[in-house]
Each structure stands twice: as C-alpha cells, then as structure tokens.
C-alpha cells in the first residue's frame, strides 16, 4: 500500500471511529455561540472535530457549502444564520459521519422551523463526482473486467458533466473546519480549483485549519497517525495563503490566528488559523475613465494583481478593479471617482496596464464639462461651514 493510500485509509478509519466514540485529541476548543448550539443534538456537539468557527462569515440568505461536514455541526449552525431563504450543503466521504449528520436532519429542522440542510457524499477535492450516484452504478454493474473498468471511467466523467455533486458558480460561501490538511498534497491543486469553480462570482470562502510555522519534514508526513490527527498534513501558514492566491482568490485575510500553538512536534508549532478570501477579480480589464484614491493609513498598498495605490493619489483602475475595491474586504479604504460622463463597459476600450498609474482629473471630467460653475456649492450642510 502506498503512503498516500495508507494516509487516506487512516483518515477514514479514524474519523469513522470518531463518529462512534468521542476522540478529544482530534479537536481544539472552539467558542461557538451558545444560542446556535442549543438547536443541535448533544451527540453531534460531542463529536465535533474542528479548530475554528468559520460561520461568522456566513450571511442571511446564503447558499453555503461545508467541506468535510462530518457530523453536521457547522452545517446546522450555518442553517440558523442563513435562515429559511438560504440553503446549506455538507459534503463528506465518510459513511459513519454522514450517517450521524443525517440522523438528526428532521429533528433539527423541526427545532428551527424550516428544512434547508442536506448532506452529500463526495470528496472535497472532486466536487463534481457524486459518490452516491457512483455507488448506485456499481451496485447494478460491478467492476468484473478491464473493459468494465474503462466503462466506469467514462461513466464517472458523464456523472461529473451531467449530474455534478456541486454545480459551477452555485455557492455564495464555502466554509470548512479543520479538513483541508487531511487532503493529500497531490490533490490540493485540484481542491482549490474545485472550490473556486463552485463559488459564484463575488462569493467568498471562510476556512479554519491547522497550519505549521515551519515546513513539516518528510518523516513526520509519512506518519499516518499524525496525518489523520491534523498534524503532519498541515500547510505552512504562508503557503496556505499563496495556494489561495494561485487558485484565483483575492483579498485574503487572516481573521483569526491562535497565539499559542495547539501542539508542538519536534519544535514545529501547529496552530489554528481562519482565513477569508473572495472570488471576483477575473474577467476583462476595461477602461471607463474611473479612478480610486487610497485613504490611508499606510503610505501605499499593493493589491493581489500587483497594482500600487499611493495614499492620496488619484489612481487609474479598470472597471473590474473599480468594482472590486468598493466591496469587502476593501470597502471604505478607497474613494471611488466615477467619470463625469459614464462610459458603458460594452463600449469601453481595454484598460492599458502600461499607462501611468495616475488618472489626471481632466481625464475623468472629460472635454465637454463646463470650465466654470455659477458659484460655490453648500459643502457643509444647512448650518454653514463655520
């Protein structure tokens, strides 16, 4: 058995056992809101294995996807936040955990007064393949020959294309609690790509996970017990941010970082960290004569596309960046300057990234704007300026 296969089996077996019997060593203490916990059955609360709480970044009405939903605790908390107009989907591949989560769906729905939570069987690094649909196919036509194996591969692709577990751009917010570190390194590029795929434009992720302050040496990575215990598969904390950036996310923020390590192994510190990131900066760059002024307090800042914004300067931006900078997490940091005469994106020329970063005021005002006005405007309100 390869080390990767051994690690996957160790993860499955350990969490299957954890669904049946509490394993305190698998979790950090997480201060969830007590009013959210009141609606969740005791068995689920006891068998929660996480390191943080990503649910504060869920909003009313959201469609939420929980990666590695386990016993369903985060899903049932998210359901109370999104309310009856929202929807919550948990994805996990562990039958015992799914059984635990599904066992209480009716009870929780009754307590909340609405039923918006569902649990689906799948791998979080392959959010296209519905493992329940695959199991149905295998039950009717088991693999008994090389030809059948080839048929199965084609059938998998058909399921991904025609009946995906999670559809493209269908999710407002992806959350996860201490699960990404359990995915083998060979699958992590696909993992982040899949998360990006299923998010709507302007969607966001909130990920709580265990990270390391140093590279984890190979001999620790080869230990299945440490891997399934959320230790040896931990991302190095800066590389976790870089992985999100490479997948196309922007606005990454470390919203919570545990000061003291959860565990220390061979001098390497492992701690919980929660990161929020956003989707929406992809697409063409069009020049609509827009500009932004960075308000401060830093002398200058640089965004995830390498654009520099000196404090107080009228910086030229494309229409896409202009919109992005007015949304979270940037809202309030930039003054948005529209041109006096609006330019439709449908007719706007491409934004020339080689141009000067400064947007001259006359460029936004445009040639046919009156050179003089009748007099001063009342800039200070009904009580005057003094």
Give a description of the structure.
With 386 residues, the chain is an alpha/beta fold. Helices cover 32% and strands 21% of the residues. It has 14 helices and 14 strands. Strands 1, 2, 3, 4, 5, 6, 7, 8 and 9 form a 9-stranded mixed β-sheet that branches. α1 packs parallel to α5. The longest helix has 18 residues. The radius of gyration is 25 Å and the shape is globular. The model has no long low-confidence stretch (mean pLDDT 88).
Helix content: 25-40%
Distance between the termini: 80 Å
Global geometry: globular
Compute the average pLDDT.
Answer: 88
Integer count of domains: 2
Got a strand count?
A: 14
- Architecture of the largest domain in CATH? 3-Layer(aba) Sandwich
Key phrases:
three-stranded antiparallel sheet; globular; 386 residues; Rossmann fold; nine-stranded mixed sheet; Ribosomal Protein L9, domain 1; alpha/beta
Would you kindly provide a brief summary of this structure?
By secondary structure, the chain is of the alpha/beta class.
Give the topology.
Layout: H1 3-20, H2 34-37, H3 42-46, E1 63-67, H4 73-82, E2 87-92, H5 95-103, H6 105-112, E3 117-121, H7 131-140, H8 146-162, E4 171-177, H9 188-198, E5 199-212, H10 218-221, H11 224-228, E6 235-236, H12 237-246, E7 250-257, E8 263-265, E9 268-278, E10 290-294, E11 300-302, E12 308-310, E13 314-317, H13 319-324, E14 334-337, H14 361-365
Parallel strand pairs: 1-2, 1-4, 2-3, 4-5, 5-6
Antiparallel strand pairs: 5-9, 7-9, 8-9, 10-13, 10-14, 11-12
Helix pairs in contact: 1-5
